[in-house]
Write a structure and sequence with these properties.
Elements (H helix, E strand, L loop, with lengths): L2 E4 L5 E9 L4 H11 L9 E6 L5 H16 L4 E5 L3 H11 L20 E4 H9 L8 E2 L4 H17 L12 E6 L18 E4 L1 H4 L4 H10 L18 H10 L1 H16 L8 E4 L33
Parallel strand pairs: 2-3, 2-7, 3-4, 7-8
Antiparallel strand pairs: 1-2, 5-6, 5-9
Helix pairs in contact: 1-2, 3-9, 8-9
Length: 307
């Protein structure tokens, strides 16, 4: 498993290459390139963190990729995490105090980047003549809670590490992320000394369009954009696709959206909360699918969602 090298003190350091699969276009291309031996860096393991709220199309795509990984003899793990949809519904069903804060959600649920219209701001706008008011975005913790942390826990198991054992004693990990050359603004260094974030698609100059072309050229289907069905970062085009192709999943998202206003999440009693950035109930939104260029995933820099 992995290769070894000597550090400056002469200690043996083992290296491990982990490919984080988001199951969207870019990370799919990255993974399939690895299967075909087209990457300079070969993954020792591929992991996908399942929030329990991916679209049916994504789960079908994961099933296909699993077969490709098996053919290429690359270990693949689907890391099961607490269901984000169920967690949110459960927290709201518990009820909250008037003085509750977003921090009260910690260890209970990872908060999505929901949109909120604060009561004070709405009242101010009404007084000034009804100007349009764009909702604010709440603090996002869902990626860390449902994607990043579960992968790290699974990585410890794969590396055979004991409780609280320090990675940097004898391991370093190259984390391969599917961010493309046209998304360099999402690149960042790891906060861990034992881990290096690497971006093979950027290294070979591949943009998202190059990834599309590579898939078509090699006879692969185009996967859907990877994100939770209830993700507020979804574009109108993605919401419209779910509504048309997976109406039962869209209805679940609408029920959660309704519950956000019928009940209360900690820290949101001072405003009205929505899943959609328009500040309207999801089931009432007329999705703009022709010229929907706003990509909210520019705010996601972990390299786990939307790739």
């Amino acid at each position: 498993m992995g290769k070894s090298r000597k550090n400056e003190r002469g200690h043996t350091i083992k290296t491990f290459n982990l490919l984080n699969l988001g199951a969207g276009v870019q990370s799919t291309v990255l993974a399939l390139m690895a299967c075909r031996g087209e990457l300079e860096l070969h993954p020792d393991h591929i992991m996908f963190s399942d929030t329990g709220n991916e679209s049916k199309a994504t789960y079908k795509h994961i099933e296909f990729l699993s077969g490709e990984f098996e053919k290429a003899d690359i270990p693949f793990t689907i890391v099961k995490t607490p269901g984000i949809y169920e967690d949110l519904m459960s927290v709201m069903d518990e009820g909250v105090r008037e003085d509750s804060k977003l921090s009260d959600l910690r260890n209970k649920v990872g908060n999505p980047p929901l949109f909120i219209k604060y009561h004070s701001k709405v009242k101010e706008i009404e007084v000034l003549g009804g100007r349009k008011y764009n909702p604010n975005i709440l603090l996002r913790t869902c990626t860390s809670y449902y994607k990043v942390d579960p992968i790290y826990k699974e990585l410890r198991k794969v590396l055979g590490m004991g409780y609280r054992e320090r990675y940097q004693r004898n391991w370093e990990c190259n984390k391969m992320l599917g961010i493309s050359a046209d998304e360099v603004y999402r690149v960042k260094e790891s906060k861990h000394k034992w881990e290096n974030n690497v971006y093979p698609l950027i290294d070979i100059g591949f943009t998202r369009n190059d990834c599309y072309n590579w898939l078509i050229k090699n006879g692969y289907s185009i996967p859907p954009k990877s994100s939770c069905v209830i993700c507020p970062f979804k574009s109108d085009r993605d919401f419209a696709r779910i509504k048309e192709e997976e109406p039962d999943e869209f209805e679940k998202a609408c029920k959660l959206d309704d519950a956000l206003r019928e009940k209360t999440l900690p820290g949101t009693s001072n405003g009205i909360v929505y899943l959609h950035r328009s500040g309207k109930p999801l089931r009432d939104v007329e999705f703009k699918t022709k010229e929907d260029s706003l990509d909210m995933f520019i705010n996601e820099c972990e390299g786990y969602c939307g790739i």
